[in-house]
Amino acid sequence: MKKIFTKEVLIAIAVIISIGLMYWGINYLKGVNLFTPSNYYKVSFEKVNGLNVSAPVTINGFQVGLVSNVSYDFNNNGNIIVELSLDKKLRLPIGTEAMISTDMLGTSTVLLVLNKDRNDYYEVGAEIPGKIQTGLMDNVSNDIMPSITQLLPKVDSILENLNNILSNPALNESVTRLNNITSNLENLTLQLNRSVPEIFNNVNVISNDLKTISGNVAEMTTELNTVPLDSTMKSINETMANLKDLTEAMKNENSSLGLLMNNDGLYNHLDQTILSLDSLFKDIKANPKRYINVKVF
Predict the structure, then answer these.
(1) Contact at 8 Å (CB) between 148 and 155?
(2) CA-based diameter of the chain, in Å?
(3) Are strands 97-102 and 80-87 parallel, antiparallel or unpaired?
(4) What residue spans of 31-144 are helical by DSSP H?
(5) Can you state the percent helix, strand and coil of the chain, rounding each to 5?
């Protein structure tokens, strides 16, 4: 009796099992679970923005399936057919839309937007409407890039003006003057740093002198306080009264001082007497023997 499980049969079985495991492993890596039943739907897009097989299909951020196939539709104006493998429990209401969303890193996913106003559903294998969700990069291309394009000539003009300003000799002169001003300020700062201690020393000397003067003034005030001001003022008043009496006597023509000061006759007599004395001195000088008699025995 021949053996059923010969060496060749065992090798064939091992190859078949290996192929099966490899197929399952490849699909598992793609995210496809062969043991989970799925429903398939088709979506037609004008462009897919780099959407690949095994890309996740989500509803409100929760993954409900995968992209099972992406093919080019040669019969429908070149649209791209994307086949979605969704959880068998999921039913899509009529009016549900599939949108392709692309993040900043360029990874595209399919977002399902369910129509909650309908109670009837698409049949499995039906084609549901699809559209491209406007992403950040699309906004950059559509909104920012035209503005940048319009701005570029202005930027060129600004750069040209800036180059003209930088190449202007006046700017170099201004920078040189600014450097000189900065150097002068540094020198002034150094001089101030050297002068400030001397100024403070002078201030201290002046302060000490003021303290000395203040002390002298205090001593003078103390001495003035010890002076008998009452008796001094009384003496001054008496002296002033005597001067007043003397002045009045000199003004009074009947007094002796008044006669001496106001009598012309006395002045004339004094003048004549002085003239006579002058003539006498002249005569004595001219004829000394008349007045000096010297006898020799």
Answers:
(1) no
(2) 220
(3) unpaired
(4) 136-139
(5) 60, 15, 25
- Our measurement of the distance from residue 251's CA atom to the centroid of its chain's CA atoms, rounded to an integer in Å, reads 88
Calpha distance 3→99 (Å, rounded): 59
| Non-local CB neighbours of 93 within 8 Å, separated by 6+ positions | 114, 115, 116, 117, 118, 119, 120, 121, 122
Which residue in the block uniquely carries the two structure tokens 């992406």? 70
Please give the Cα distance from 18 to 12 (Å, whole number).
10
Q: Is the dihedral of CA 136, 141, 146, 147 positive or negative?
A: positive
Distance CA 110, CA 59 (A): 9
- Each residue's pLDDT, cut to its tens digit, for the chain (297 residues) gives 456 667 777 777 778 888 877 766 665 555 555 444 578 899 988 888 888 888 889 999 898 988 888 888 887 777 888 999 888 888 899 989 999 888 777 788 899 999 888 889 999 888 899 888 765 555 555 566 666 777 777 777 788 777 777 777 777 777 788 888 888 888 888 887 777 777 777 777 888 888 888 877 777 777 767 766 677 777 888 888 888 777 776 666 666 666 666 666 666 777 788 888 888 777 777 777 676 665 544
Reading across the β-sheet that carries 108-113, which strands appear in turn?
A: 127-128, 38-45, 80-87, 62-72, 56-59, 108-113, 97-102, 130-132
Helices 145-167 and 169-226, interaxial angle, to 10°? 70
